[in-house]
Amino acid sequence: MIVKFIHMADVHLGNRQYGSEERKRDFAQAFLDAIKFSVMERVDFILISGDLFHKKTEMDPITLIQARKVLELPKKHNIPVIAVEGNHDSTYFRENYSWMDYLASSGLIINLKPSFEDGEIVLNEWDGNTGAYIEINNTRIYGMKYYGSLTEKVLDEFANSMDRGDFTIFMAHVGIEGYVKNMYGCIPSSKLHKVDANYIALGHVHKSFIEGDRIFNPGSLEVCDISETTYDRGIFLINYDDGLSYRLVRDFYKPRYFFVKKYRMKSQNYEEFEKFISDEKLKTELRSDKINKPVVDITIEVERALRRVISEDEIRKIITKHLNPLLIRIHWNVRDVFKPVLPDSTSRDVIEREVISQLLENYPYDDISEEVLKLKRIFSSTFDLKQVDGMIEDIIKGGERKEDKSIEIVQKRGKAEKEEDWGEEEWDWRSACDTGSRVRKHKKL
Ligand SMILES: [Mn+2]
Which domains does the chain have, with CATH numbers? Predict the structure, then answer.
């Protein structure tokens, strides 16, 4: 017997990544291209191992139209599409009617999942609406959706209830530990090696891998997270002719290019940054100018004092000029480096006041070093809250008189309004600090 099929996973249709409509179109284009490739290869069937959709509940009309339009194509060519629900497609504890069920009822996919009767797993044959396996020619395909923390338990029961056909495929949305760091929904590979099937079609881990000679995971079609930009990914084209031969097809679609860099900014020198960007561009595929509109993701490490004078607009202008980006993401990694210049004095008080005053230069509070020292004295001697109350009152009154910025400190910290708005209400500054609210006098009705 000869079987030829495509195995893909993690399509994430409807992923409006970083709020970009164009990124949402990317995910649809990737899916369309994967299906087109499958149809052109005249495969017997197509497997989608979960996460066809990005969001499990909030379906929007555009995403649904994308799914329907693409899936009409294999239907027209009589190529069955067999799928399971991933963690993004279903709520895994409740037996809700999912959008995958909706596609199945429209005859666009076969959505395989086990059912449970009195707590016992039941693997029924697909009846046109529901079922855990289907026979296509001499191939028997089993499907298990995502079960989160119950995965190992359900998998054991599922595997024990399976009957082998001539050629048996087990499809599941589950990861194997060790391929991606700290990923939920992964199990030890030994659990899957116990499953008696010729081909185990996985999804969930967005990176491609093959384990042993039976376990295959193709990875996502597109980049779903910044941590995934360097992953190998594609769709598997599988041929079974008394032996398994496979190819990870990558060139059916070109995922969006991500330009991800880290930069350490040492001074307010935009020319240096510009040189960095143009040098780095030459090291990447972007130099050919054949790649259109990359996602640019830059992490800039900078000291706090310098961050205050750097213009993000200027940074964006430089990136736009050199990279023609689809969108720019800038992450500021601000480091607090404090090196005080010590005064020429041996007095502890003088040194302390000078250091605090320099430290405060990094904050928008003007010089309140005198007040900070006062507070420190109160707390290091008595911890007398009445004294603290008195001091805060002094600051507020002082602020009223001088209209200096110290009143803003209280307002920022406590989210209180200006004093003139308080009227005759009592105000407990401590509770205001805690909750951002103030004590009100109740009006008698
Ligand atoms: Mn996924």
Answer: 3-249 (3.60.21.10), 258-335 (no CATH), 348-435 (no CATH)
